[in-house]
Write a structure and sequence with these properties.
about 400 residues; two-stranded parallel ribbon; elongated; mainly alpha; 2 strands
Length: about 400
């Protein structure tokens, strides 16, 4: 093909719409402008120039066109992740298979323009992890080979998928929709936006209401982990093995999405032995909250490892209850207070005994000194008193800081 002048077919013209106008601002626009096409027709450019220009494409744009090509020739199974340069190289290799590669390239551009999703249709979910998780769950089959860690990665991926490959979403989402009370609403308009608008409507009208989630504390790590495990045991976690939350807030959104995916249609087969007519979602919430409340009560009643019981003689029970009533304390608090008061009293007695014994020892030691001169005796007596005072202060300070056993 080197040196070949490629002519375009005469049917490349199309009427621009909102999507095509937006798309012409991208790097691809220079390859579909009238000036470029005119140069090819006049022979000022050949196919080598065309391939050189393709190497200037952004990796994201090259990947998009390569995936479209695979989709159009029924080889979507080849749409896997490559290194950035590989997307450009593979796209060029595919185009070289055609007799008129520029014609084929412009067909891909034309197809993409007609299927390009404007940014305005992404605003309702591109800053909302819960909505993005639900959308991702509808095309989970397209994401199972990938893993997304945290909010930013997941939202970026689902936004790119819908913006660039809306056709893949439109052909996959329906079979993964939960059974909801409010069904699909028929919207009119461009086929590439109608499906997404339908999904937006059905999801927002059927997702779990805030009043049913009030008992879940988004900041309680222990509770969130317990709920996650509960849903996981019942195989209700959405995007298991695909999305990995990094924070409690993200785990809370994942829990909400998992509940959103459960049917809200009531059934006579769902419920307790004595009460039927729950939906799968309402019964799961009912059972889960009941189990969590039971868990909390058990934790409150369960004695800690530091607690131990004391047997009170029967003859003293009335006395204990009377003392507790007079003190306006519970029996447990009264017993602990009596114990602490008695400990402080005994501790004070021991401290006083220690002070007296120390004073006596110091006096006897000073009396054993042999006086040499009167001045020295006076000095000794003075030092004795000073020493005694310091010893008492030291002992009293020690008593305040720690008990003496």
């Amino acid at each position: 093909m080197n040196g070949q002048v490629t002519r375009l077919s005469g049917n490349q013209d199309f009427t621009p719409n909102q999507a095509s106008i937006s798309y012409r601002h991208s790097q691809l626009s220079k390859l579909v402008t009238d000036e470029y096409i005119s140069d090819v027709r006049r022979g000022k450019r050949n196919v080598d120039d065309f391939y050189s220009d393709l190497y200037s494409l952004k990796a994201e744009e090259a990947r998009s066109l390569l995936y479209i090509e695979n989709f159009l020739i029924n080889k979507s199974w080849e749409n896997i992740d490559f290194d950035n340069d590989d997307y450009r190289n593979l796209l060029i290799l595919r185009l070289k298979e055609y007799r008129f590669p520029i014609d084929r390239y412009n067909e891909l551009i034309h197809w993409k323009i007609q299927n390009f999703l404007p940014e305005s249709y992404l605003s309702w979910f591109n800053n909302d992890l819960r909505c993005s998780l639900f959308l991702a769950s509808l095309v989970e089959n397209l994401l199972t080979s990938s893993a997304y860690k945290g909010r930013a990665e997941l939202i970026a991926e689902i936004e790119a998928l819908l913006r660039l490959y809306i056709h893949m979403f439109n052909t996959s989402y329906y079979n993964n929709l939960p059974q909801y009370q409010t069904g699909l609403q028929q919207h009119s308009g461009d086929w590439k936006t109608v499906c997404l608008l339908n999904v937006k409507s059905i999801y927002l009208k059927n997702r779990t209401e805030s009043k049913d989630l009030k008992w879940i504390d988004a900041s309680n790590s222990e509770q969130l982990e317990w709920i996650y495990s509960y849903l996981d045991k019942n195989k209700y976690i959405a995007l298991k093995g695909v999305f990995f939350p990094e924070t409690d807030e993200e785990k809370y959104d994942l829990i909400c999405t998992s509940l959103d995916r459960l049917s809200n249609v009531e059934s006579n087969d769902i419920g307790t032995k004595n009460k039927k007519g729950f939906s799968l979602r309402s019964y799961t919430l009912f059972s889960m909250k009941k189990a969590w409340d039971g868990q909390k009560q058990y934790a409150i009643k369960k004695p800690s490892d530091d607690d131990f019981s004391v047997k009170i003689y029967k003859k003293n029970r009335n006395k204990l209850e009377m003392l507790a009533a007079r003190s306006d304390l519970t029996v447990n608090k009264l017993l602990n207070k009596l114990l602490e008061d008695e400990y402080d009293r005994v501790d004070e007695v021991r401290c006083q005994t220690t002070i007296v014994s120390t004073d006596r020892y110091l006096e006897e030691s000073v009396n054993m000194l042999v006086p040499i001169e009167q001045e020295e005796i006076v000095e000794v007596e003075s030092n004795k008193k000073t020493s005694l005072r310091k010893q008492r202060e030291a002992i009293m300070g020690y008593k305040k800081s720690s008990p003496i056993f």
